[in-house]
Amino acid sequence: MPFTEPVTLRGLLVTLEPLSREHCAELEEAVRDGELWNLWYTSVPRPEGVAAEVDRRLALQDAGSMLPFVTRRVTDGRVIGMTTYMNIDSANRRVEIGSTWNAESAHGTGTNAESKLLLLRHAFETLDCIAVEFRTHWMNAQSRAAIERLGAKQDGVLRSHQMMPDGSLRDTVVYSVIASEWPMVRNGLELRLARR
């Protein structure tokens, strides 16, 4: 299966659907929940910037470097955020899971953990990846803790790695899960979700 072929991934808490322009209104509503764009160390769009962000992600999909999804909560059918496979390197069978944000009301509900389980399962069991990366801002303690709870291991820190919209420099923390670790990571995520 090609790495950028759109696919729907279904779980008990969330469904990851291929991103389309038709999701803009639902994403604008979701991004208002918590106003996460106010956190200086994130790259969450404002409601008026959602359409441009959707277009950006779809253009990267067309270029072969991203496969974007919306996250839809199963219980009420509401779109609660976005996530992607990005920096796709199909020749080396590697992807990064990133550019993820979820409505604040979804935090701590298991939806993010299940989204990551679905993406990791597809990456390792369908795409036959040898490694899956996660990257986040050094200052984003919440994101770093969530990535570590998944079972990903820190590979290192890329210092002064990116210029942020406010002109500051981002130190990027790089994590990964490799294929040999996937069974342990999968079991840990499944156990976490079963306890809910």
From TrEMBL:
It comes from the Bacteria. SUPFAM superfamilies: Acyl-CoA N-acyltransferases (Nat) (SSF55729). This is GNAT family protein. Residues 14-153 form the N-acetyltransferase domain.
